[in-house]
Structure formats: structure tokens, C-alpha cells
Amino acid sequence: MKKAVNLVLEDEEIIELIRILLDEVLPYLATLPGVIAYNPDACTLTFRRRPGFLTLYADKGLELLAALKNAINATWEQRHNLIAVTKARRAPRLLDVWSLLPRSNCKLCGEATCMAFAVGLLQQKRVLDDCLPLQTNSDFVDRRASLEVMLV
Known about the structure:
The chain is an alpha+beta fold. 44% of the residues lie in helices and 11% in strands.
């Protein structure tokens, strides 16, 4: 039988984690392979994390960990109402999104091209409803459904 684990972090624990991370650990993290940049004056560290980069900022550390704490606690409390993801899942890629768009470059969405619209979707600056052909053309029903799942 598995032992129950308490994953609820208190604010004091979060603050202590931040203090340790920023004051003591960041300079050591800068020695790891994949570190792109380290600025001790600004207390920032940027390193490569597939599929991109991750930058730690001293002044955003509390905000980031507080949001993470809240997400962990809320998820843990609701775990009985959720279905766990058990298979690998990756972020959608630009060409994956673009290939499902009409690719007519009609400009009805306000973008110059469907590629630009795909970028907007990935950056969450656009929504699928902005693409009129996806809404009105029955030939694109399956593509729209795939995009809706992909962009969740």
C-alpha cells in the first residue's frame, strides 16, 4: 500500500525555496551544461529546456512559485475529478497548426497569411473563431476539431 504524501506547500516553505534558489543555488546552476546566460547582478539565469529556453528572474521568483504552489494544491485537491495524462504530450508545432488551416491566405482573420495566423494561435493572440473559412466551410470540420484538441 502506498503511503499518502502531503503535497501542500505553505507560504513560508515557498519563500524559503525562493531564498535558497536565488541566493545560493543560482550561481551553481550556472555551471550546468545548457546554460545560455547568467547575470549575477540581475540574478537571472537562462538555460535550454526542450523545446526552448527557460529564464529564472529573481524578482519574479515568488510570483512563479506561488502560482506553481496554487496549481499543485488545486490539482491535488481535485485529483479525484481529473483524468491523469499517462502518455507523452508535446506542444503543437507551427507547421502542425498551419497544415490544418485552410492555407488560402484570404486575410479575413486580419493576418497577411495563414502562417501568420498559426503563429497568433500558438501565441494565444488569436482564436480559431477568427478564421472564417474554418467556421463556415464544411470541408474544414475535421481540421477544426483537430485544431481544437491540439490547441487546448
